[in-house]
Design a protein that fits this description.
proton-transporting ATP synthase activity, rotational mechanism; 87 residues; mainly alpha; 2 domains
Length: 87
Amino acid sequence: MASVIPVKEKKLMGVQLGELPSWILMWDFTPKSTAGAFQRSYYRYYKYVNVKKGGVAWISMVLAAYMLFNYCRCYKELKHEQLRKYH
């Protein structure tokens, strides 16, 4: 017989959709626990992203994100420019 795990001890991937609201409401929302959650996520993220020697790659990523953002923002006007004939 399978052991039943309480909803509070389940990880996000183990929670079913119907249990999700009660799982979220079991969290501790005090300032100390919220700061701890941000700190844990920061260290988990930088465990994989921590770069010893920086280069110019971050500049190209920022520029690419900026260009994509502006393209999405101006898509309506650019779409009309594309359909015009100049001959």
